[in-house]
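target protein:
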Amino acid sequence: MSDWNTCSYSIDGNDRIVALGDEWHKFAIANDAVELTAPGLIGESVWPFITGNETRHLYQVMLARVRMSGATVRFPFRCDAPNKRRFMEMEMRPHGEDGVEFVTQLLREETRPAIALLEHKPTRANWMIRMCSWCKRVATPDWVEVEDAIQRMQLFSLEMAPQVSHSVCLDCRQLLRSATR
């Protein structure tokens, strides 16, 4: 199990990071994101850290909902590491004037053999696959678990892993829309 169970950060009304929770450093390290441990994150816009146009759009919709209604939005998602499946839940709740606090909780973690496709590697093939930002399934063209996609697309035999383009599958899009209603 990870050495963190919850992680939080807050943004202001201009979507700038204004606070990092106590567990932030451990969360960043566990996700191979050493660049996110620096105190220089305070004051930075949250948007460069949210990948994929569809994912950004859903975040914008959810942020607008939280800010307009003052209601908390809660939804499940996955944050996988090469050797772990992490089932998580995020809450987006009002924080200060037009600010939003993001609280992420680890619900369950499963160990699995390491998957090169999920490793942070600077060198990748010149073609892409689409991965859902929320559930981590891969379009093959139907959305399947990473392990199934690797077999279907014969990714084990490749010298270099493909690039990953983040998207949102139809199931997660519906789930996120219902969370914001």
Observations:
- Helices lie at 24-30, 53-69, 146-152, 170-179.
- The chain is about 25% helix and 30% strand.
- The longest helix spans residues 53-69.
